[in-house]
Write a structure and sequence with these properties.
This protein has helices at residues 14-22, 52-62, 83-105, 119-123, and strands at 2-6, 29-34, 41-48, 66-67, 70-71, 73-76. It has 128 residues and is of the alpha+beta class.
């Protein structure tokens, strides 16, 4: 079971989290989320525990636990609904997006001598 640990002090390390959670069972993984630019902790982490019973016990005992001066919050991490579908949809949409960007950059030629572009050509058919 994957757990979300929030409200961590900036000084909290993965090693401290591993030590704390190992008291409640086996740890499959521990990932302290860091800022890409500064390398500093963002104040939350994910801890994965293979046994659901141990994970639930850790949630019960560690939610509200004081660690490095902060009361941490521990709960089951929620997976994004349709995450796999979203990934597939994004992969399919990328070529379409590139085509639309190219269409916006290229001047639209119409049969009329007007300077205005035909909205249907630029934006495509819009349905409600």
């Amino acid at each position: 079971m994957k757990l979300l640990v929030r409200n961590l002090a900036k000084a909290t390390t993965e090693e401290k989290l591993l030590t704390l959670f190992k008291e409640h069972g086996n740890i499959q993984s521990c990932n302290l989320v860091l800022d890409k630019d500064t390398g500093a902790s963002k104040g939350f982490a994910f801890v994965e525990m293979p046994k659901v019973g141990e994970a639930k016990a850790a949630i019960k005992q560690l939610n509200g636990y004081k660690l490095a001066g902060n009361l941490i919050r521990v709960k089951k991490a929620e997976t994004k609904k349709g995450a796999e579908e979203t990934t597939e949809a994004v992969a399919e949409a990328k070529p379409v997006i590139k085509e639309k960007k190219a269409a916006k950059k290229a001047p639209v030629k119409t049969e009329e001598t007007s300077e205005m572009a035909d909205p249907a050509v630029v934006w495509g058919k819009v349905e409600d």
